[in-house]
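Input structure tokens:
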């Protein structure tokens, strides 16, 4: 079956079968039952685990387990969805499963959907179906690491062969860490040096499969079709806008084709030159949700870009090029995999210890697009509606919440992104929040994104703000980024009274950003003095000192009261 659209690379696509996969399993007996366990990697193309199952079995059982813990509606969450994931992402996942099912059906197979705790379900299926081989993509996320340890132990005891290749990233994070003497590289440049060219890039990628063996007897396992969002209990949700992303491999490949049609654009891609306010035609590929769920193989994406670079004379290079973006992804996967407690401040050796505020009021204002800064609020509305925002928009709001203005803990912002982004990805999200909050990787805390002038640079007339915050649609251009400065008569004419129809700013940016810099300087000094080992007592002392040294009028709470 030819699943891929015609692409610039089609002449280079031929079947690869990694000999090392066989070498690792010398006793593999062909002709038995295999279970192909889909988690991410929701695709047929470049799917080593599926390819292995397909080539060595009489029967292949393609399985996806829906864990109610992740999917059932949580009426107390701040946005529609389960307690962990927003509805945009849940819908995207279900659509991806429907598409996977339909692509499997083209091979005479189908997706078997089961419900329950994944480890219990998978173990029960292996027993019921007399599975001799369990195939699934290797996953570096802590959740899967713990789950897979359990499954691997069971398989070992039961004599079931496991085939779990690394195919979500360009490189194997373990190999990079090993090359670096057991520690992850902490800068992008050192990562690039260690990584070099991926070894698969000199051979080829398997983007087509000729056959998938049939499913055997299902016996007593209760399998279902892919449920709809309604069947999961989300029937009451009213949505104003149709979802922007349709999940699935077919859509991923269509979008990839669309993005790579313009070869000049691909070759000349320079990330920092992108416009975060472009919403009719965003300035990047918007492929992140597809990469997150593995509807699109990052290796295939990489391969397509490389082919274009061969054709177009001059092309940009990492870190700003499109290949450079995929390498950022691998960089964060590698650091995340090799750093204990990567997703928190405490106990994370690469994270600066900073006495962040625990201000739930400010956090809620940011999360719910009520900061009074139109640029920030418009981005947060786009995030909630689309489940995706441009990279520099992510920079703006992450900086504003943490080191730029509100001084709220980056972990809180990370949680909001984790819920609302469709592309929410454990390693990339945590890595970027560490970066933006100047907790790791990037330390120039004096360089702050202004919530007023940064957006204005790209979109002086404020079209982006007017689109996502229609309450401000008639505000004159002069005041669109600072509506609180508009005289009352202008506010009345624009039918938007600040403090009534749209909030006053929650802080004064100039004072708040000065205050943030002061706190960061003190925290950096402490981290330096303690060589990164900052105790709770040190932190308490620092908090006390910061309060004592605080000049009149610099407290953000007092500023807040002054403004309202
Ligand atoms: P393109 O520019 O077209 O890049 C292609 C692909 O490269 C992306 O799809 C993505 O997989 C990868 N990529 C691009 N930029 C980065 C980056 N800085 N770090 C790692 N990989 C990158 N990206 C996520 O995929 N999931 C997240 O949860 C996530 N959280 C973020 C949180 C913050 C605070 C910030 C500042 C960035 C975050 N990013 C995240 C990175 C980046 O913003 C998105 O990957 C990108 O905007 C997705 O749009 P795109 O597919 O059009 O990207």
């Amino acid at each position: 079956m030819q699943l891929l659209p015609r692409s610039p690379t089609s002449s280079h696509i031929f079947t690869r079968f990694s000999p090392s996969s066989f070498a690792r399993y010398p006793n593999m007996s062909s002709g038995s039952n295999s279970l192909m366990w889909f988690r991410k990697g929701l695709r047929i193309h470049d799917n080593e685990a599926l390819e292995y199952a397909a080539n060595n079995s009489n029967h292949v059982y393609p399985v996806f387990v829906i864990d109610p813990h992740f999917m059932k509606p949580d009426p107390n969450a701040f946005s529609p969805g389960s307690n962990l994931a927003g509805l945009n992402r849940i819908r995207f996942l279900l659509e991806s499963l429907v598409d996977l099912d339909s692509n499997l059906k083209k091979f005479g197979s189908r997706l078997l959907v089961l419900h329950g705790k994944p480890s219990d379900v998978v173990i029960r299926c292996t027993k019921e179906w007399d599975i001799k081989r369990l195939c699934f993509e290797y996953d570096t996320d802590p959740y899967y690491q713990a789950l897979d340890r359990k499954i691997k132990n069971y398989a070992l005891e039961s004599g079931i062969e496991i085939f779990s290749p690394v195919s979500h990233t360009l490189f194997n994070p373990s190999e990079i860490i090993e090359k670096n003497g057991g520690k992850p590289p902490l800068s992008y440049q050192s990562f690039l040096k260690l990584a070099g060219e991926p070894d698969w890039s000199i051979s080829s990628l398997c983007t087509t499969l000729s056959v998938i063996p049939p499913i055997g007897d299902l016996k007593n396992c209760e399998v279902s079709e892919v449920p709809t969002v309604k069947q999961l209990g989300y029937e009451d949700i009213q949505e104003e806008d149709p979802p922007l992303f349709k999940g699935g491999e077919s859509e991923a490949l269509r979008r990839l084709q669309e993005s790579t049609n313009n070869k000049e654009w691909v070759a000349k891609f320079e990330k920092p030159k992108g416009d975060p306010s472009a919403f009719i035609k965003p300035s990047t590929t918007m492929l992140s949700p597809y990469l997150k769920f593995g509807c699109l193989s990052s290796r295939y994406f990489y391969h397509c870009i490389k082919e274009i670079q061969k054709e177009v004379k001059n092309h940009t290079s990492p870190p700003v090029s499109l290949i450079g973006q995929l390498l950022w992804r691998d960089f964060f996967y590698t650091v995340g995999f090799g750093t204990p407690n990567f997703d928190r401040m405490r106990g994370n050796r690469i994270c600066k210890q900073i006495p962040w505020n625990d201000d739930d009021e400010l956090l809620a204002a940011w999360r719910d697009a009520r900061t009074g800064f139109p640029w920030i609020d418009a981005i947060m509305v786009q995030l909630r509606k689309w489940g995706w925002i441009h990279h520099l928009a992510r920079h703006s709001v992450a900086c504003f919440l943490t080191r730029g203005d509100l001084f709220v803990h980056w972990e809180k912002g990370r949680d909001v992104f984790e819920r609302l982004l469709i592309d929410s990805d454990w390693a990339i999200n945590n890595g970027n929040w560490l970066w933006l909050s100047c907790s790791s990787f990037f330390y120039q805390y004096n360089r702050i994104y202004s919530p007023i002038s940064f957006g204005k640079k790209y979109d002086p007339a404020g079209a982006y703000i007017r689109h996502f915050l229609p309450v401000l649609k008639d505000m004159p251009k002069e005041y669109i980024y600072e509506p609180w400065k508009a005289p009352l008569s202008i506010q009345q004419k624009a039918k938007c009274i600040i403090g009534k129809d749209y909030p006053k700013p929650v802080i004064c940016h100039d004072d708040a950003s000065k205050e943030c810099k002061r706190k960061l300087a003190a925290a950096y000094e402490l981290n330096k003095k303690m060589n990164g080992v900052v105790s709770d007592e040190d932190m308490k002392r620092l908090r006390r000192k910061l309060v004592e040294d605080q000049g009149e009028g610099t407290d953000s709470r007092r500023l807040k009261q002054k403004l309202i």
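Residues 271, 284-288, 291-292, 325-326, 328-329, 332, 390-391, 394-395, 398, 417, 421, 423-425, 428-429, 432-433, 436 surround flavin-adenine dinucleotide (CB under 6 Å). Residues 1-29 have pLDDT under 50 and may be disordered.
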